[in-house]
Design brief:
- This protein has 137 residues and is of the alpha+beta class.
- Helices cover 16% and strands 43% of the residues.
- Strands 5, 6, 7, 8, 9, 10, 11, 12 and 13 form a 9-stranded antiparallel beta sheet that branches.
- Strand 5 and strand 6 form a beta hairpin.
- The chain starts with a strand and ends with a strand.
């Protein structure tokens, strides 16, 4: 890894790619599963809770760290970064149907979105207009 993690946060390069894994999410519709790559959570400074937001007019998916008191948040497992897996997974049929309705994607495929971290806003955003379609075997 060319960037370094400091007490104040991560280097700019590390915010876009951590440990050779991109800031990314994968929508797997057959399993109603959202996979949030660990690099995405690293860019957000390993939050204990996250919120998933959709900006419908701009067609942008956003993840932000939040407190446990905020509405519609998800707890990130304390030991997530101790495990060899490369993603945090959430399963929600309702959420995945909302994504399908927003995007018009084909539910027979999975889709990966690469994102970027905004230091100013403290969020990771993903443009849903430019997905990478993954053929499910």
């Amino acid at each position: 890894m060319s960037g370094s993690i400091e007490k104040t946060g991560m280097s700019p390069k590390a915010r876009t790619q951590t440990m050779d894994y991109p800031i990314a999410v994968t929508f797997a519709f057959r399993r109603d599963r959202l996979r949030i790559h660990k690099a995405t959570l690293e860019a957000l400074h390993r939050p204990r809770y996250i919120q998933l937001l959709i900006h419908t007019q701009a067609n942008v998916f956003v993840i932000r760290g939040c407190s446990a008191l905020e509405r519609d948040c998800f707890e990130v497992a304390k030991n997530l970064f101790d495990k060899p897996s490369v993603a945090y997974e959430l399963t929600s049929r309702l959420f995945m149907r909302a994504i399908l309705n927003q995007t018009g994607w084909d539910e027979n495929y999975s889709y990966r979105l690469n994102g970027h971290y905004s230091e100013q806003l403290g969020v990771v955003s993903f443009d849903m207009n430019h997905p990478e379609r993954i053929t499910v075997k």
